[in-house]
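--- STAGE predict ---
source: upstream dedup step, 1 unique chain passed
mode: sequence only
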Amino acid sequence: MLDRDAVLLKVKAVLAEIVNDEKVLEMPPTTSLKDDLGIDSMNSLVLLMNLEKELEGFEVDVETLDASHFESIGSIRDYVSMQLGL
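--- STAGE serialize ---
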C-alpha cells in the first residue's frame, strides 16, 4: 500500500536518477529542488513524467499543478500524495 513515506522515497529515487547523485536518497524533504539540486523547468517535466511512469495512479493535473509544488523534495511529495488521494 502506497503512503506518503513511500511517495517520498520514490520522489527521491527519481530525483537521484535525474541529477545522477545517490546522495539525494539521504536528503531531507526541505531540500530545495532548484538551489540544492539544480532542477530547472526541463528537469521538472522529466521528474513529473518519470513519476507518472513509476507511480501507478499518479497523473499530473495541470489545473492543480503550481510552481510552489517544485520548491522542495517535500513539496513535490505533497503534490503527488494529493493527486493519489493520500
